[in-house]
Design a protein that fits this description.
The strands form 7 sheets. Strands 5-4-16-15-14-6 form a 6-stranded mixed beta sheet, with helices on one face. Strands 21-25-22-24-23-26 form a 6-stranded mixed beta barrel. The chain folds into 3 domains: about 125-200 and about 430-540 and about 545-630, Rossmann fold; about 215-425 and about 640-665, Dimethylsulfoxide Reductase, domain 2, CATH 3.40.228; about 695-820, Beta Barrel (Barwin-like endoglucanases), CATH 2.40.40.20. The chain contains 26 helices and 26 strands. The protein is α/β, with parallel strands linked by helices and about 850 residues long. α6 (about 210-220) crosses α14 and α9 (about 290-305) crosses α13 (about 360-375). The chain is globular.
Length: about 850
């Protein structure tokens, strides 16, 4: 055979091989593709005319929630695109305006096909056969799995009481107006509450310090402008915020690009130089982690000392900024200005004082303070990350004080943000009534392990026990089981090694997800949940963005997966309250849910959206169109009516409370959910671990922070190969630190402290300040025989010590770093094998 014939032969057979293996692989992993289906991963590519186009959206808590357009062949999604302007009323290709921008999906959402058809897809109910955490399961029928869980629930309630089942639902994998996983409005809370056995998890890992600050300061967590207001800012300070990775709203980058084009200046205050700083040519101010409140206090001192505050705004709208704005009943108590100037404690919070703590020069602190106080309008975007620290609430409250003293609240282009919730969407389509969110005790989410390990010798203040108005107030919950719904919290909460100790003491662990997760490896029962491509729902904006996206059932549920609502409805029938739990459904809902789901959603659209939000588009037209975009009369600015029309704030004083009436009146802190004293005004409080602690840094000289990555949403998408090939889990450190340790990029290191140890490659750069290490959160844990995590999950190093207002101290971590010979397992992008075979066992 001559060379050309050989080449032709090899190419022909290679194409045949790829076609065959691609189809075979898909068939094996799903078990559902019929012989008539032709959805090729390789040529011949199906043409658009051969595919059906369906509008849907992403479903996760990534900082946004945008459109995904599914292109399918029969019952297989072949590819995903995103909004191009056509999928709305009067839409046309390319339509993309400031009032109605395209809702473009990010690289995570665009990769979703790989998650639907991944080897880790959970297709059948599974039951544990090995030791808990060993990851050995067998396939079970729905009848067996449901019966086991129902019987175990009844036994646990009868034996240990009405606090024995812990609700750890969250918005990770099941989020819509009907199929909702959530701590307050979610399906699991309603289910366990009606069963009569539920301990709730009251705190949110991402932003609990921020919600506390917003409620104390503004009386609401709806303190966010819509992101279109950024386009009108003249200065944007990104404090711990990297919108290139976590948007915090809809179309954030679009509006910030407009701001840049219109002359807006950008500043980044962050321990690392981010992609956002590069994009906007921002002035980078590197700051030592967990010292943000001190730097802000230094800025406030400069503003007061130079009389740059907006005194008219303060006099009209603020309580406690100075002596003249204190309430009469507290005239003898400390006000914010006296604290900043040192009149009340003898220590002026000068820029020089702050510089010693935060590592930012006094000159730069003064320069930034002057820029912020003299530029109108200016947006101080106080992101959540610096609040994920010990006493993180003080950072958020200090930011609110700066926003108020400069008069940048309630004006277009300004910013009052803490939590950042903007335009109000109607969020619930299933029954949300007196049976929803029933709880018998409620604790801080990441203190469950402490409660289990120390029961009954637990102080209420050590677990953030929420007060009750009945005789059960102060009762320590006897937790014997956990439900994880839409939540990979075992992988994501602080101090994982402590969780591992606690989980062995439980009698029941149930994980409900569409994908096998690290949390699932520790469960007793795995319920396969249909993805949002396999059920009918409507997508809401995530915190910001004024739109709704119809989310039809694009494909049939794979394997034997069911929706969350189907599973809870069937369990409720087995436990005796099925009709009450799902009043529209009959017992056959577990097998035929489409008519009931349609009825719920149509009723929600007509009675809530159309009735309350001046929407005239009928339900059927919305389904056909796909996306409904609101046109606002004006950009949504939080508290604009308070400033322009004199509407009172929802605080006890009706004003912005820099001096908090509620905090000032507490007398017994142990009877509050906070447990420990919180000052009535914002203050710098020294954290329990940071670079300023000379004794602790002798043993652990690096401060570790764990920001959100671009290639995951927390732990979601960690197993997507194309994303893992683009970004690797690695610890980032400054070149000067690496030189001292003899490290270079690519070396394997162990990052460790007294709580745990992880193994990960190192990345050396100048884009991270000396003394700081960066390890992105969300990597799937992978333990060796000695309990060392080989995947680089930082939560083996974090502390579950409670910050008073509920902040999760993810970024209050001191560690050491050294080169190692311990095994590193880089994950799904490099490993030729996966753990999926463990879950395909038949016995």
């Amino acid at each position: 055979m001559d060379t050309q014939k050989l080449q032709d032969y090899l190419n022909i057979n290679r194409r045949n091989f790829l076609k065959t293996t691609a189809l075979t692989s898909t068939t094996l992993s799903t078990g559902l593709i019929s012989s008539k289906t032709q959805a090729y991963a390789y040529e011949p590519y199906p043409k658009d005319d051969d595919l059906e186009t369906v509008v849907t959206s992403c479903a996760h808590n990534c900082g946004s929630r945008h459109a995904l357009i599914a292109h399918k062949k029969n019952d297989v999604i072949v590819r995903l695109s995103t909004d191009d302007g056509r999928f709305q009323k009067d839409g046309e290709y390319g339509k993309d305006t400031e009032e109605e921008p395209q809702l473009r999906g990010c690289l995570r959402g665009r990769s979703y096909r790989h998650r639907i058809y991944s080897q880790e897809r959970l297709l059948y109910p599974m039951m544990r056969v090995g030791k808990r955490g060993e990851g050995k399961f067998r396939r079970a029928s729905w009848e067996e799995a449901l019966s086991f869980v129902a019987e175990k629930m009844q036994y646990i309630k009868a034996t240990y009481g009405d606090t024995a089942l812990l609700d750890q639902s969250y918005a990770g994998a099941s989020w819509g107006v009907l199929h909702k996983s959530d701590q307050i409005e979610g399906l699991l809370g309603r289910f366990l509450g009606m069963f009569g056995c539920r301990t709730s998890s009251w705190s949110v890992p991402s932003y609990q310090a921020t919600t506390f600050s917003s409620r104390m300061t503004f009386g609401t967590i709806r303190d966010g402008n819509e992101d279109d207001t950024f386009a009108h800012s003249k200065l944007i300070i990104m404090w711990g915020w990297n919108p290139a990775y976590t948007f915090h709203g809809g179309n954030t980058f679009y509006y910030m690009r407009l701001a840049k084009q219109r002359g807006c200046k950008f500043v980044l205050v962050d321990p690392q130089y981010t992609d956002s700083a590069s994009t906007y040519d921002a002035w980078w101010i590197p700051i030592r982690p967990n010292t943000d409140a001190a730097m802000m206090a230094g800025m406030a001192h400069y503003i007061f000392s130079n009389n740059l505050q907006d005194q008219d705004f303060i006099n009209k709208f603020v309580q406690g900024m100075d002596a003249a704005t204190m309430p009469d009943w507290a005239s003898d108590q400390e006000n914010f200005k006296d604290y900043i100037l040192g009149k009340s404690d003898g220590q002026p919070k000068t820029p020089e004082w702050a510089a010693e703590i935060c590592g930012v020069s006094a000159k730069d602190i003064k320069k930034l303070a002057d820029m912020y106080a003299t530029t109108k309008p200016a947006a101080l975007k106080a992101s959540w990350a610096p609040g994920r620290n010990a006493y993180g609430e003080q950072y958020n409250r200090m930011a609110a004080a700066l926003q108020a003293m400069t008069g940048n609240i309630g004006i277009l282009g300004g910013c009052a943000e803490g939590v950042g919730k903007g335009w109000h969407a109607k969020a619930v389509a299933y029954p949300y009534d007196e049976n929803s969110n029933i709880w018998y005790q409620s604790i801080k989410s990441d203190r469950w392990a402490h409660c289990v390990l120390n029961y009954p010798n637990v102080k209420r203040e050590d677990i953030g026990l929420w007060p009750r108005s009945d005789e059960t107030d102060g009762q320590i919950p006897n937790i014997r089981g956990i439900f994880w719904q839409g939540s990979d919290w075992f992988n994501q909460l602080t101090n994982i090694n402590k969780e591992i100790q606690a989980i062995h003491k439980l009698d029941l662990v149930v994980c409900m997800d569409s994908t096998i997760t690290p949390s699932g490896l520790w469960a007793d029962v795995l319920f396969p949940v249909a993805t949002h491509f396999e059920r009918h729902d409507v997508a809401l904006p995530w915190y910001k963005g004024h739109y709704y996206i119809h989310r039809p059932k694009v494909i049939e549920p794979m394997g034997e997966s069911k929706t969350d609502l189907q599973i809870f409805t069937e369990l409720a029938y087995r436990l005796g309250f099925g009709k009450e739990y799902n009043p529209k459904a009959e017992r056959n809902y577990f097998f035929d849910n489409e008519a009931v789901d349609e009825e719920f959603l149509k009723e929600w659209w007509e009675n809530k959206v159309m009735h309350y939000q001046n929407v005239t588009m009928p339900w059927d037209e919305f389904k056909q169109t796909g996306i409904y975009k609101f046109k606002l009369d004006r950009p949504h600015v939080a508290f604009q009516d308070n400033v322009e029309k004199g509407v009172p704030w929802d605080t006890p004083s009706g004003k912005i409370e820099i001096f908090s009436s509620k905090l000032a009146k507490y007398t017994d802190w142990t009877k509050t959910s906070y447990g420990h004293y919180i000052p009535a005004i914002p203050k710098w409080i020294e954290p329990w671990e940071y670079l300023g602690d000379r004794e602790k840094t002798k043993k652990h000289p690096f401060h570790l922070i764990s920001p959100h990555p671009r290639w995951r949403t927390h732990s979601i998408f960690n197993n997507i190969s194309i994303l893992r090939e683009t970004y690797e889990q690695e610890v980032t450190m400054n070149a000067s630190d690496a030189m001292k340790l003899g490290l270079k990029t690519g070396d394997t290191v162990e990052v460790y402290n007294d709580r745990g140890k992880v193994v990960v490659p190192v990345y050396v750069t100048q884009r991270c300040m000396p003394g700081v290490a960066v390890l992105y959160e969300g990597s799937w844990m992978d333990l060796d025989e000695n309990g060392v995590d080989r995947s680089g999950n930082p939560d083996f190093l974090t502390d579950d010590n409670p910050s008073p207002a509920g902040a999760f101290a993810y970024n209050t971590v001191l560690v050491n770093i050294q080169k190692t010979c311990l095994e590193h397992r880089p994950g799904w992008d490099r490993l030729a094998t996966s753990r999926s075979h463990v879950f395909r066992r038949d016995n």
